[in-house]
Amino acid sequence: MARVTVEDCIDKIPNRYDLVLVAAQRAKDISAGSPICVDRDNDKNSVVALREISENRVSIEDLQKSLVMGLQKYVEVEEPEEEEVEILSAEKELADIDEQFSSDMITDEDLNNSMQIHGDDDDDALDLDADAADFDLDDDTDFGDAGFDDTDDLD
Predict the structure, then answer these.
(1) 40 lies in some domain
(2) Domain span holding position 55
């Protein structure tokens, strides 16, 4: 059985060092249990990885991404800044307050109905403007309160 060498894969990945790194990553994946795409033929994982690369059976870009992710010690996670966290928490509080008051709100129709005076028929309905015109505040009419004399206190 012919062995695959680095020269057989140079046309796929021109840089030999990149090729070796990618082939080593694929060999590690195979060791970890990844299914192989070619017949094993009693070859070691590194030879199987080179054969897969030479026959275009694996995605080289995916192997390169996997290699980079495997070599990273610290993966930078983009966290929101302090101001954004404060804004988000304030928005949440306002939404909670709004929700609390929206359930307690009186509709305009209920408000209008509660402020109107309803009578049984139109003759009994009160006309507040007409009733106010009937009163003359300058009139010294005795309202029947014998114990109250409003003229004594003015002297």
Answers:
(1) yes
(2) 6-71
